[in-house]
Amino acid sequence: MATASFKISDFKTSIGNLVRPNLFNATLSGYKNIKGVGTTTVALPDIDSTFKFRCEKAELPGRTLATAEDAVGSGPSLKLPYDITYNDMTLSIICSTDMKERDFFERWMNKIIGPGGASNSAGLVSYYNDYALGVELKVEQLNEAGKTLISYTLKDIYPTALTPMNASWEETNTYQRFGVTLAYRYHTYELK
User: Fold this and answer.
1) Lower Cβ count inside 10 Å, N or C end of the chain?
2) pTM of the model
3) Rounded percentage of the chain residues whose pLDDT exceeds 90
4) Could you report the per-residue pLDDT of 107-144, keeping only the tens digit for each?
């Protein structure tokens, strides 16, 4: 019995063009309407013009179906879905020399829960409508020509964690960056 030989050219033809993870775009909108405790008169810095260049890493979001086992009757149990869980989004942000990006997320978190200190708002929690409702993050996967292949829009997002930033004499040939974790209510997607 003869076996077909493997040819690299057949493999290349079959696999076709692939999507590269470094070709993406991330934009943040709706944050200008954020209100909150304590620092309500201090607006968040405007990052519209630089955010897509400062966001060096994003994720296309995932989701999970929560299931419960139905063990009624005899035989193997059956897993049945009852809810959707949306995974938190993690971004990596490059800092500019004015630290505007870090300041943006620090202030946003201060509007969610009043920071400690001498202010009257220390520990007070804002209403969800004031810090998340209407805020969106759009992450687009692009092809090599810059055309959007798929676009995800995360609805009603807000930061839940900022990572520490290194201050080190060892790191001389790099730039300052930090991570931010965002929670959101749900996402939609559109295949272009």
Assistant:
1) N
2) 0.85
3) 62
4) 999 999 988 776 677 888 899 999 999 999 999 999 99
Q: For 140, what's the count of Cα atoms within 13 Å in the CB-facing half-sphere?
A: 15
Q: Which of 34, 37, 35 is nearest to 124 (CA)?
A: 37
Nearest CA to 128 out of 151, 106, 150, 111 is that of: 111
What is the distance between the alpha carbons of residues 115 and 59, in angstroms, rounded to a whole number?
29
CA nearest to 90, candidates 19, 183, 166? 183
DSSP string of 31-86, one letter each residue = GGG---SS-TTSPPPP-TTTHHHHEEE-----EEEEEEEE--SSSS-EEEEEEEEE
Enumerate the β-bridge partners of residue 55: 93
Q: Record the tokens describing residue 103, joined without a space.
A: 């300041």
Closest CA to 157 of 178, 180, 179, 191: 180
What six digits make up the tokens of 40? 């309500």
Count other C-beta atoms under 10 Å from residue 77's C-beta: 11
Confirm if 150 and 189 have CB atoms less than 8 A apart: yes
How far apart are the C-alpha atoms of 125 and 36, rounded to whole Å?
8
What is the distance of C-alpha 71 from the center of its chain?
A: 37
CA within 13 Å, CB half, 148: 12
